[in-house]
Amino acid sequence: MTDLVAPLTLTDEQRAVVERPWDARVLVTAGAGTGKTHTMVCRLNHLVGHPIPEEAVGADELLVLSFSRAAVRELTERLRAHGGAARTVRPKTFDAWALELLSGAYPGTDWSSRSFDDRIREATAAVRKGAVEVSAAGVPAHIVVDEAQDLVGDRRDMVETLIDVHRESLGFTIVGDDAQFVYGFQIEDRVQREREAGLFFDWVRASFDDHEELHLTRGFRATSTDVREVLPFGDELRSLPSGAAGREAAESIYERLRLLLSEQGGFPAVDDELFLASLRATRDRVAILTRDNRQALKVSEILHEHRVEHALRRSAHDRSVPSWVVDLLGATEATTLSENRFRSVVASVSLPEGTEPAEVWRVLRSVASARGSQGLDLGRIAPLVRQGRFPEDLADPVRAHVVVSTVHRAKGLEFDRVIVLTPPTVTELRAAHPDVDMPAEARALYVAMTRPREDLYHVTAPQVRMLRRAERGDRVHLTGRKAYQRFGVELRGGDVDHTAPFGDALAPAVQTYLREKVRPGDAVELRRINPLPAADGQSPRYEIVHEGRAIGEVSEKFRKDWYRVMKINRIWNPNWPKSVVGCRIDSVVSAAGPSATSQAAGLGGRGVWLAPRVGGLGRHVWACAEKETE
Ligand SMILES: Nc1ncnc2c1ncn2[C@@H]1O[C@H](COP(=O)(O)OP(=O)(O)OP(=O)(O)O)[C@@H](O)[C@H]1O
C-alpha cells in the first residue's frame, strides 16, 4: 500500500469533501481509484482534529460503516498509518455494528446463533425503538458510509432508519460508486435487484433538501496508461439505462473491457511454469482475481500443488480471532490489567507484524473496559470471542505477497499487479447461464480491472466444470460425469468444531502442537472416526489430521452441509469416504466457550483455546471395499 507512506495531499475536489463541517450532509460519487478511501481518511482527520473546538467531533462521536471486512480493514490500516487525529476511529461493517447494537440492547439474547440478515432486521427494529440513544456509544454526530452503492435490501433499510431517526442532529458523508455495485445478488428477485441499484442514493436525495453532491474525477491508482484506459468505462456503467437497453449497453461494455484485457500481457494457464515462477519470485503485492469461488478454490489448489505461497481471501462473513488472544489471556492470572501491566504482559506474547501493543490496548479497552477503572477486564474477552463480537480490526493482517480472491472479496482493495482470469465471451456466458445478469458481469469485470496500481494481466481460467454448488446452501463440491458422483467437497471457516478444545485428556498437548507445529498452508486430511452418521441428516464424525496427528474435529455445520451435498435424492443412502485429502490449514485461531469447558480440558478457566481453521477443496478417498456404487 503506497498510501501508507505517501504524504496526504489533496486535490481541490477532495479538499471540498474533506473540509465540509460536521453537520453537512454530503453525498460523494466517484470512480474507482479516485481517492474515496484517501479522502475519507483526511475527512475523519479533519473532523476530529478541527482547530476550532466547536467544529471538532470526538473520535467516539463518529460512526464509520462499510460493507465488507476488506474495506474496513483497508480504511483502518490507512487511518492508523497516517497517525492523524482520527487514528482511534474504528470503522465497522454494517453487520458488526448491528450485532454490537443488539448485544448492548438485549444482553440476554444469544445473537450469535441468528443469521446475518435476521440480525440486521432486528437491529433496524431496535434503532426505531431508540436503542442507539441508550447504547454505550450514544447517537453519533456524524456518520460516514463507505461503499454505499452496495447498500441494498435489509442493510439499506437499517442505515436509512438510523439516519432518519436521528436526522435532526446528524451530519453524514456517504461515499459510493454505482459502477462498482457488485453485491446486487443479495437480492434474489431479478426485477427488485435492478430497482435496488442507486436506491439508497435516491433516498438521500429525496429525504434531505440540504444535501450536497460532490464528485471525485481524477484517477490516482493506475500508473500505467493501459490500466488508465479502464477508468472511462466507469462513466458508462454509472449511466446504464434500465431494462433491455441497459442490458445491451452492458454487453457492449463487457466485450470492450474483455478486449482491453486481452491486449495486456497474458499467460496460457495457471500451471504455466513462467507464470508460477513469476509468482514465486514476486516481492510486490499481486492478486489473482476470479469471477467466482469455484475458480478461486481451483486456482488456490493449483498454486499449492506447485508450491506457490499465497493467501486465499475469505468470504465477507467469515471472521476469525487471532491466536495471540489465547496467549494474552494465558500470560497472566489477573482479571483486570492497568495499561502498564498490560504492556509488560503483552511483551511476552508474539503479536504478528503490523499489530502494535498500543493499538491492541486501545481497541480491547474500547470493548472490555473494567467497570469503574481505567483498566482492561480480561474476563470480558472470552464472551466477545464466543459471541462473534471480537473486534474485527484486530484480525491478523493478510501479509502474503500473492492473494487469490474473487472480485467481490477484493473490492475496495488495491494491488501492485493484478491478474484476471480470462473472462468468457458474452456468447459463452449466455450458453452457461441463459439469464445472465449482464450489468453485474460488466461491473464485476470493471472492478477487477481497476484494482492494479501498475500492471494488469490475464491468465486462462482453469476448468471448473466438475465443481458445482449445492442447491441448498452454497457448498462447492466436486462431481463426476454422472449426476450422483461425489468426489470432493469445499472446506471453509466454521468447518472445524470450536465448541470445546480438541483432544480430551490430551488437550494441553494438542494446544502446544497447534502453537508450535501447525502453519497456514500445511496439508491436512479429514479421517473418519466412525462409519455411522453422527445424527440424522449429518455425515459421520471426522477428525482433522496434520502429519499423522489429530488436531481437531469437523463441526456439526460441516456434517450437515456435507450430508446435503451427498444426499442426492430421498432414497439415496450416502456412502461416506474413509478420508478427505487435499485440505489446507488456513490459520490457527482463538476459540472460546464457557470457562468450565477449558477447565475440564486442563487449560485453565479463561474459556479460550486454540483451534485450527481449514480451507480448500478436499478430495474423497474410499477404502477399496467401500468404493462408491450405485
Ligand atoms: N490526492 C492524492 N494524491 C496522491 N495519491 C492519491 C491521492 N488520492 C488518492 N491517492 C492514491 O490513489 C490510490 C487510490 O485511492 P483510493 O484507494 O483512496 O481510491 P478509491 O476511490 O477508494 O478506490 P476504489 O473505488 O477502487 O475503492 C491510493 O493509492 C491513494 O493513496
UniProtKB/TrEMBL annotation:
Please list the reactions this protein catalyses. Answer: ATP + H2O = ADP + phosphate + H(+); Couples ATP hydrolysis with the unwinding of duplex DNA by translocating in the 3'-5' direction
**In which residues is ATP bound?**
A30, G31, A32, G33, T34, G35, K36, T37
Annotated keywords = ATP-binding, Helicase, Hydrolase, Isomerase, Nucleotide-binding
InterPro entries in the record, alphabetically? DNA_helicase_UvrD-like_C (IPR014017), DNA_helicase_UvrD/REP (IPR000212), P-loop_NTPase (IPR027417), UvrD-like_ATP-bd (IPR014016)
Q: What class of enzyme is it?
A: isomerase
Q: What Pfam families does the record tag this protein with?
A: UvrD-helicase (PF00580), UvrD_C (PF13361)
Q: What is its EC number?
A: 5.6.2.4
Would the keyword Isomerase turn up in this protein's UniProt record?
Answer: yes
- Where do the UvrD-like helicase ATP-binding domain residues begin and end? 9-411
Question: What is the protein name for this chain?
Answer: DNA 3'-5' helicase
Its taxonomic placement starts with: Bacteria, Bacillati, Actinomycetota, Actinomycetes, Kitasatosporales
